[in-house]
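Look over both lines before class:
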Amino acid sequence: MAADAQRLRVAVLGAGLIGIDLADKIRRSASLELALVAGRDRDSLGLRRAADMGHPTTAGGVRAVVEAGPFEVVFDASNADSHAEHWAALRPTRATLIDLTPTDLGTVIVPGVNSHRSAGHRHLNLVSCGGQAAIPILHAISRLCTPTYIEVVCTGASASAGRATRLNLDQYIATTSAAIRTFTGAGNAKVMVNLSPARPAPPFRVAMTVVADGIRPAPIRTSIAAAAHTVRAYTPGFKVTSLAVDPGRISVVVEVTACGGRLPGHAGSVDIINAAAVLLAEQAAASR
């Protein structure tokens, strides 16, 4: 069988910054074949860029994706308000839908924490970029102590936040908070989002504070280092920049710098969630 025939046939729904970076990452994958990039505005910069990269494009949205199928994986890089409609349209096609919008639908997956669960589900929820950056660290902490309160502050460059991201901030906060509670068992989790207009644009930064009982500094540090190493396997620009472990309180700061591809360095928020999405699709290809 030819190598191309072994690739998963995939589509990207959404032609904003996230969708076009996804197209670039898929193009560099040895196990995925990008057969369509779908948007809604035929004159959008994103669709023009996708076409310039050599990918088939359409302005027909999810209807065009259904008509052009079947696809084995569809990445939803559109917006949270449209995702339920997209799942309803794609569910009968038997495609696996990987959701990069901050909805509360589907099975929540964070690579390095529970990516093994993705094989049994066709509707996968990647929470948010902040969730992908914070949850591996918070989950590592929660395995060794009992969090009672968690606070997460996500700061991204204004230049890396597109229209859909800005419209979906309420969903982003609610979905990320719920996922943090699920993965850590914390009774209370608070998430805040800042968009920085600073110049030069700063890297994506996530500051976490964990209030917990039973903190043992040495195992906590080791567990956090192991979690960061796991994330760097698919997001090389991920790093822990600050860590303080005190009685009853842990403070961690991570930064994500976009590495390689078409993204500017400050777009680490896009890089980490897209890397997670492509990793899940590649794992599906390997399991096939």
Residues 130 and 236 are 16 Å apart (CA to CA).
